[in-house]
C-alpha cells in the first residue's frame, strides 16, 4: 500500500471527523427549527449522498458504470445504513446536538466491543474497568433529572449507533470500501420510499431544511466517508477508534456555536465517563494485543 505524507493523512482525518460531527449539527439545525420533517431529511440525505458518491466514483474510476455499482455493496449493508440514518433523524427531533452525538458514538464503540465478546474475544482487567465506566456514563446520562434526555430520543439514537456499528463491522473486510459505500447508498432508495408511507401526512420541506439535508448527505456524509476511507488504511484500528471519540466533542462545540445550545454539567460528566471509559477499554485492548509480541521476542 503506497504511503501518503503525514500532513495529508492528518488533513483527511481531521476533515472526516469534522464531517461526521457536522451531520449531527446539520440534522439538529434542520429538525430543531422545524425546517423539515425527519422522514424527508432522511430521504434527502441518503439520496443526495448516493448521487454525490455516484458522481465522485464515476470521476475516479474510468470503468465505473451501472453494472459495477450494482455488484457492489450488499442488501445487509444498505439495511444497516438505512436504519442508522432513519433513527438518527428521528432521534434528533428530541435530542440536542451534543447529547445525540455522545449517545451515537458511544453506542457504536460499545456495540463493536460487545460483538467481539460474543465472538469469543476476551477482555483484560483494564478493559472491563473501561467498559464499566462507559456503561456508568450512559446510566448517569439518563438518571432522572432536569437534563435527562428524552427516553424515546435516547433509544432511537442507541438504535442508530447499533446500526452504524453493525454497518462498520459488515464492511470491515471490504477491499473496495468507497465502491461498496456507493452501492449501499443506492440500495437504500426503495427503503426511503417506504419510509414516507407512515408519515405521508406529516411531510414538511422548506428551502432551508432541504438544503441542510442536501449538505448533510452530499457533503458531510459522501465527502466525509471518502475522506475517512482515504485515511483509514493508514491508521491502526485503535487509532481509528480513538480519533472517532473526538466527534461528540466537535459536535458539542458546533451545537453551542451554530445551534445556540448550552452545555450542562450532567452532559460534561457523562461525556468524561463514557469517552474516558472507552479510551481505557481501547488502551487495555492495545496492551493485551502487544503482550504476545513482547513475550515472544524474549
Outline the structure in words.
It is a multi-pass membrane protein. Residues 13-141, 152-282 form the EamA domain. This is EamA domain-containing protein. The chain crosses the membrane at residues 34-56, 77-95, 101-118, 125-143, 149-167, 188-205, 211-230, 242-259, 265-284. The chain is mostly helical and 298 residues long. The chain has one domain. It contains 13 helices and no strands. The protein has helices at residues 6-32, 38-60, 66-71, 75-91, 97-118, 125-141, 151-170, 177-187, 189-196, 207-231, 237-244, 247-259, 265-296. The longest helix has 32 residues, at 265-296.
Summarize the structure.
With 298 residues, the chain is an all-alpha fold. It has helices at 6-32, 38-60, 66-71, 75-91, 97-118, 125-141, 151-170, 177-187, 189-196, 207-231, 237-244, 247-259, 265-296.
How would the blueprint of this fold be written?
Layout: H1 6-32, H2 38-60, H3 66-71, H4 75-91, H5 97-118, H6 125-141, H7 151-170, H8 177-187, H9 189-196, H10 207-231, H11 237-244, H12 247-259, H13 265-296
Helix pairs in contact: 1-5, 1-10, 1-12, 2-4, 2-8, 2-9, 2-10, 4-7, 4-8, 5-7, 5-12, 5-13, 6-13
Domain EamA: 13-141, 152-282
Subcellular location: Membrane
Transmembrane segments: 34-56, 77-95, 101-118, 125-143, 149-167, 188-205, 211-230, 242-259, 265-284
